Amino acid sequence: MTMLSTPTSSHAADHAARDDAPTPWWRLPIIAIGVSLIVGVVLLAFSWPAVSADPHDLPIGVVATDEQRELLTESIDEQSDGAIALVEYDDRDAAVTAIEQREVYGAVVLPAAQGDAPEVLAASAASTAVAQLLGGLAQEQQAQIDAQIRTTVEENLSAMQQSVAEQIQAIIQAVMSGQTPQLPEQGAEPISIPVVTVEVTDVVPLSDSDPRGAGLAAAMFPMVIGGVIGGVVLSIAVRGGGLRRVVGVLIYAPVAGLVLAGILQGMYGALQGDYWLNAAAIALAIAAISGTITGLAGLLGPIGVGLGAAFMMLVANPLSAATVPVEFIAAPWGAFGQWLPPGAAATLLRDVSYFPAADASFPWLVLTGWAIVGLALTLVDLPARRIARGETAAEHPLTV
């Protein structure tokens, strides 16, 4: 009995034949060049913020008199070339409060009385790079003080030598003239050399288990990769409508937050403060990232999954300022990165872990906004609606 080929079977056979056909030679250089360009983009995305990191308008507090402040401003402007922006405070307590609230990265406290030592306030938990910069500033202040002391001592020694020479000359003249010389008084005070040491105080130090902040910086990447993996897996593996994906995100994010916070805080000691608050911050960050990916999948289909993952990894993550202060990233990209989930997550986790006095409302709102919008788009699920209307993948090759 002869089997008649149907249009469907013929189309499938043609499609299979096309899949088995060798790749044309002319496509090979296009594929190779395209992959090379993608690799170059990935390299630029991850290396550019680190290579081009250059501080600009870094807020540093100063407690000083008007004259001292003017001299310090001139000195810093000459040496930093716009890297530091001084913020005035009335006293040391006000500067410490500003550091704890993350308004400034540190402060320089100059003494009102002559002979007292200056003090440099730092916060290694805010940024080890800025803490090192302030340490260098303290060394410069110490060198200037030592030079002033050395100059003063040399001037006093020269004056003393001149006085002794005059007294000896007077005694010689008195003896030669037959008069009784007037001897110098006994018990003259020796020249005192003052000791002034610039003190460096770490107002908000890193934990003993993470003294260089490596664990805190490394904590940012699991949040991003966890959000991306969750969004991709839930978009591909969960079928049956956007509501199921939303429920999947709402279950996955809190569980992942508890697990990551337990490892980072319980095992590594990279996080400080309240465990549940840290877990909540991580959970919201993962919900914002994974929800954005499932939302793009609900809006654009499969291509949305790739776009969402690429955006988070190649754009948002490098601009997150997780390892350097925002002021180290070229404007306006540093500020722009704080409006994206990885940047807001990095700021929020550092705030809740080390700076409980800081106002963290902005990163909380940013992450909440991304999560809500992403989950709302997930519920839309346009690809499922198109399939329900009888539209095929041929009509929407990338979105169904």
Structural summary, described in words:
The protein has 400 residues and is mainly alpha-helical. The protein has two domains: 58-202, no CATH class; 214-388, no CATH class. It contains 14 helices and five strands. Strands 2-1-3-4-5 form a five-stranded mixed β-sheet, with helices on both faces. Strand 1, helix 3 (66-80) and strand 2 (84-88) form a beta-alpha-beta unit. Helix 7 packs antiparallel against helix 10 (302-316), helix 8 (242-267) runs antiparallel to helix 9 (275-300) and helix 8 (242-267) packs antiparallel against helix 13. 35% of the residues are buried.
In spatial order, strands of the major sheet run: 2-1-3-4-5
Q: What integer value in Å does the Rg equal? A: 34 Å
The sequence of SSEs as H and E is: HHEHEHEEHEHHHHHHHHH
Enumerate how many helices there are, as a single number.
14
Q: What is the total tally of β strands? A: 5
Question: Rough shape?
Answer: elongated
Can you summarize the main beta sheet?
Answer: 5 strands, mixed
The total domain count is: 2
Strand % is 5-15%
Alpha-beta content class: mainly alpha
Quote the average pLDDT.
Answer: 80
The low-confidence parts are 1-13
Oligomeric form of this entry?
Answer: single chain
* Helicity, as a percent range: 55-70%
